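A favour, since you know our structure tokens better than I do. Could you add the entry underneath, on a fresh line?
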Amino acid sequence: MADAIAKQHPIPRLGEGEDAAALADFLLSEQAGWITGQIMAVDGGRSTVRSRG
């Protein structure tokens, strides 16, 4: 079942805690100093794909 779900994502794998942690690390870094008021989906691109139902 996990494989079937993963295949529905543009990045064909299930996300892990490290994926969200990587975004948090970036947002806390100096490199993200000019990023404000954004909504960032950490969903493997799933939010860009239309439902097939």
Remarks:
- Helices lie at 2-6, 17-27.
- DSSP finds two helices and no strands in the chain.
